[in-house]
């Protein structure tokens, strides 16, 4: 639940700063980028500090090298968080994080179904966990959509003088 709280609080804080007059923070995609960057920083760091063993226990047993997978996904989350803050890489970061959320979903299912404990507490049930994953995915896809369209180049058109030829 902490990632969701961070996402909401930071997004609202960035949006409020924009509403208070910080021109660069006025748009909702910028606020959402900030919230997502904070959330993925939190979750990425947790792959190395505090919850590492619990996250390793969430990896389904059919997958090889759970510790390595947790390390790789942590690095990818941290890289994605940085990428969300760099204007040239926002769309790539949002797309990569969207894919990462989909790829990591089986670990969330396994954790919910197997009853794995995180920080000594029972994991969230599958339905609310799935809803949270959908919220996170919707947020990354919204940022992807907002920034992917900005990078598109208009299709070439014929000059008016050549159109009749």
Q: What would you note in describing this structure?
A:
The N and C termini lie far apart (about 65 Å). The protein is elongated and about 50 Å long. It contains seven helices and two strands; from the N terminus they run H-H-H-H-H-E-E-H-H. Strands 1-2 form a two-stranded antiparallel ribbon. The longest helix is centred in the middle third of the chain and has 25 residues, at about 90-115. Strand 1 and strand 2 (about 120) form a beta hairpin. It has about 160 residues and is mainly alpha-helical. Mean pLDDT is about 85; it is low at about 150-165.
Average of pLDDT: 86
Give the helix level as a range of percent.
Answer: over 70%
Beta-strand percentage? under 5%
Number of helices: 7
Q: List SSEs in N-to-C order.
A: HHHHHEEHH
Q: Are there runs of 5+ residues with pLDDT below 50, and where?
A: 152-165
Alpha-beta classification:
mainly alpha
Rg: 19 Å
Distance between the terminal alpha carbons, to the nearest Å?
63 Å
State the major sheet.
2 strands, antiparallel
Across the major sheet, the strand order is: 1-2
How many β-strands, per DSSP?
2
Choose one word for the global shape: elongated
């Amino acid at each position: 639940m902490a990632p969701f709280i961070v996402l909401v609080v930071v997004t609202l804080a960035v949006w409020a700063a924009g509403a208070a007059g910080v021109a660069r923070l006025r748009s909702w995609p910028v606020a959402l980028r900030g919230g997502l960057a904070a959330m993925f920083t939190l979750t990425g760091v947790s792959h190395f500090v505090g919850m590492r063993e619990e996250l390793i226990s969430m990896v389904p047993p059919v997958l090889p090298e759970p510790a390595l997978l947790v390390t790789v996904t942590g690095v990818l989350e941290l890289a994605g968080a940085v990428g969300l803050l760099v204007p040239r890489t926002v769309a790539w970061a949002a797309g990569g994080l969207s894919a990462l959320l989909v790829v990591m979903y089986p670990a969330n299912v396994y954790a919910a179904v197997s009853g794995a404990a995180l920080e000594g507490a029972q994991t969230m049930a599958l339905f609310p966990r799935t809803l949270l994953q959908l919220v996170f995915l919707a947020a990354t896809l919204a940022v992807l959509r907002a920034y992917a369209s900005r990078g598109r180049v208009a299709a070439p058109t014929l000059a008016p003088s050549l159109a009749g030829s």
